[in-house]
Write a structure and sequence with these properties.
249 residues, mainly alpha, 9 helices, globular, binds zinc ion
Length: 249
Amino acid sequence: MIILLLVLGLIMGSFFNVCIYRIPREGSICYPPSHCSNCSSTLRIRDIIPLLSYMYLRGRCRYCDEKISLTYPIIEVTTALVYMILYYKFSLSIEFFKYSFLWSILMVSAIIDYRTQYVYESISKVGFIGGIFFSLINLIYGGRIDHILLSLIIPLVFLGGIILLTRKIEALGLGDLELFIIAALYLSPTTMVVALFLSVVLGGIIAMAYLLKGYKRKSIAFVPYIALGTFLALIFEEKIIRWYFTITL
Ligand SMILES: [Zn+2]
């Protein structure tokens, strides 16, 4: 099972690389076939085997020797690792598929947001459709609709609070809210609260570090923290809640 997940994760990661590269360039995900971004040579199967081709080509294009970005193998390995960790935590359950799907959407959006400061509708749409699909499955298996609604209300109340405090609608990007609402379709209310809490803390720490270094940027890409916060919430939810109550009570 672990080997299967490793292979599947690497292949999915390789597909996410294509999405991350092509979606901001408004390109089709299936056409044209994979090619080198430098010399435009069409890549053959042996050039696009996840991770392995990067290793035996020593990180360079076979045709023009241009360096291949290290982000490609990193995304492939990260995807495989996350799938394996989620399997370890949830075994082969609906939760496993649901959270693997959510993570995939968040990771692709996070990297595109980091590079372009944009959240693209095409990915959000897939996230919404998946979220509605998994919510329906949840309801069929005895899940409660008030729990789903509660999860959805949490990010809305949070955004409302931020707007009231800062008196600015754009304080948190609408794209960020969109992804919080997508995440809410997949997460229980408790996990949603922990995910939101962790995203804001992690994002806040990084924003502070930027400020201290005198780094002036109008806004930081927040989706990477939503992705990271959600992942940590899924894995460490109980521990984080226990820790929070031991330090506050
Ligand atoms: Zn090339």
